[in-house]
């Protein structure tokens, strides 16, 4: 029973963090408890990366420790590192292990009835996890690049050239994040 309690607490905490991060910014939630928890979380993260935190660390632990903390912050937040991919692989592995441990003994479940769960759910589980890992590897092996005003300008010019080759009779609009980019031949503007 201790395992089930640990899973319930961990799952509940994960769902709460998920809800805080995804819903805390929404208009309907920003003044409620999720918005307050998001503000608390982001203020903690802002403090952890602030000069005030580094001054406190320097007074308590010395300059060498500040240099190490700064190096860790730089590595974790601003450089490519294997931390997030490793966390994803751990989550997939633990989730699949829990599913296999607790759900596989019950499959098939009343497969002969209309509402039953058939045997192929075992096969589907392996296919879904395999597909997740293939997509993960494909995304991990591609360099996403950095979005800069120059990249947007180059993309805009490429779209304009395609539009001129097609013909100037029609206008096409496409969105980049919250920025609307017009590819009309006579007018093209990117607001950053």
Ends: how far apart?
A: 54 Å
The helix/strand order is HHHHHHHEE
| Number of helices, where a helix is a run of at least 4 consecutive DSSP H or I residues | 7
Helix content: 55-70%
Average pLDDT value? 78
Total number of β-strand segments?
A: 2
Biggest sheet record: 2 strands, antiparallel
Content of β-strand: under 5%
- Overall, the morphology is extended
**Radius of gyration from CA coordinates:** 25 Å
* Stretches with pLDDT under 50, minimum 5 residues: 175-192
Structural class: mainly alpha
**Strand sequence of the main sheet, in spatial order?**
1-2
Transmembrane segments: 86-107, 119-140
Signal peptide: 1-23
Keywords: Membrane, Signal, Transmembrane, Transmembrane helix
Describe the structure.
This protein has 192 residues and is mainly alpha-helical. Among the domains are: 80-144; 149-182, no CATH class. The protein is built from seven helices and two strands; from the N terminus they run αααααααββ. It has helices at 2-23, 33-48, 51-61, 63-78, 83-102, 120-140, 149-166, and strands at residues 173-176, 179-182. Strands 1-2 form a two-stranded antiparallel sheet. A hairpin with a 2-residue loop joins β1 (173-176) and β2 (179-182). α3 packs antiparallel against α4 and α5 (83-102) packs antiparallel against α6. The chain starts with a helix and ends in a 10-residue tail after the last strand. The model is unreliable at 175-192 (pLDDT under 50).
In short:
This protein is mainly alpha-helical and about 190 residues long. It has helices at about 1-25, 35-50, 50-60, 65-80, 85-100, 120-140, 150-165; strands spanning about 175, 180. Among the domains are: about 80-145; about 150-180, no CATH class.
């Amino acid at each position: 029973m201790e395992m089930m309690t640990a899973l319930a607490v961990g799952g509940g905490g994960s769902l709460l963090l998920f809800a805080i991060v995804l819903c805390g910014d929404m208009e309907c939630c920003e003044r409620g408890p999720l918005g307050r928890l998001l503000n608390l979380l982001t203020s903690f993260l802002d403090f952890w990366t602030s000069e005030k935190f580094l001054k406190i660390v320097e007074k308590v632990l010395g300059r060498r420790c500040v240099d190490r903390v700064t190096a860790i912050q730089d590595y974790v937040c601003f450089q490519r590192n294997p931390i997030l991919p490793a966390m994803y692989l751990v989550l997939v592995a633990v989730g699949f292990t829990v599913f296999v441990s607790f759900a596989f003994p019950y499959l098939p479940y009343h497969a002969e009835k209309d509402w039953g769960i058939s045997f192929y759910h075992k096969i589907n589980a392996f296919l879904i996890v395999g597909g997740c890992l293939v997509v993960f590897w494909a995304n991990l092996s591609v360099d996403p690049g950095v979005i800069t005003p120059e990249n947007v300008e180059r993309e805009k010019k490429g779209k304009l050239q395609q539009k001129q080759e097609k013909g100037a009779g029609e206008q096409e609009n496409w969105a980049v994040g919250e920025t609307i980019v017009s590819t009309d031949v006579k007018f093209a503007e990117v607001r950053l």
